[in-house]
Specification:
Number of strands: 6
Helix content: 40-55%
Distance between the termini: 34 Å
Radius of gyration: 24 Å
Largest sheet: 4 strands, antiparallel
Length: 232
């Protein structure tokens, strides 16, 4: 696909970006790990690979003399994406409720797609995909910072097992930040001397987290806590 015929790729790429954005906005609003940028990158990468597969006539390769070569671009795409999947899995990790690294994995995936495009000689499509991916990763991060988005926070608190238990006061401090706080793991540690529990909550600003940290630190019996905002 040359620059003169690049307008044929604009509509598929635009459609893929819009489709991924619509799903990603909903996921982002609900505080899911795979949000706006992740969905757009996955959708865009899929569209670019399909456009490349449909443009075999423009691929830059030369057959041997007197040889009739039949190509199957889907085998190439399958092989590359299967291999890049192992690399993407290596950058994804879980901390409590949250899963980190999904946008990084998606950016690795789309980078592999762009490499396939340029390697096949589809320079116009590769330039278009590069510009779109850069806009998504850089431009949408600036936009998301300006939106009133509530950050998802993993909270882990440890306290002494005694009477009266400080757990009700801990839960009250968490609910002051997010009334819909979710409960997770509960364990006994240090030979049963301490209790440890994790929660998931949403905070609207950093000041709320600072007030929560001060309140937890001042709660009698609390021996340690961590507040881990999710940022993919």
């Amino acid at each position: 696909m040359s620059f003169t015929g690049l307008e044929d790729a604009l509509l598929p790429v635009l459609g893929a970006v819009i489709a991924g954005g619509v799903i990603g906005i909903e996921r982002e609003w609900r505080g899911r790990a795979a949000g706006l940028r992740t969905h757009i990158l996955v959708s865009l990468a899929s569209a670019l690979l399909m456009l490349a597969a449909m443009s075999q006539a423009d691929w830059a390769f030369r057959a041997l003399p007197d040889e009739n070569i039949v190509t199957d671009p889907t085998r190439m795409a399958h092989g590359v994406l299967t291999g890049i999947g192992f690399l993407c899995a290596g950058v994804i990790f879980r901390t409590g409720f949250s899963i980190h690294g999904l946008t990084t994995a998606a950016s690795l995936w789309i980078t592999s797609a762009l490499g396939l495009l340029f390697g096949a000689g589809l320079y116009g499509l590769g330039v278009l995909g590069t510009a779109a991916a850069a806009t998504i990763l850089i431009g949408l991060r600036l936009i998301s910072r300006a939106l009133p988005v509530r950050a998802v926070v993993d909270a882990e608190v440890s306290w002494e097992r005694r009477e009266p238990s400080p757990e009700p006061e801990i839960e009250a401090a968490l609910k002051a930040v997010d009334a819909a706080v979710r409960y997770d793991r509960f364990e006994m540690i240090d030979d049963g001397r301490l209790a440890r529990r994790t929660w998931r909550l949403k905070a609207s600003d950093e000041a709320g987290l600072k007030r929560l940290a001060e309140r937890l630190g001042a709660t009698p019996g609390v021996v340690g806590f961590s507040l881990d905002p999710r940022d993919d």
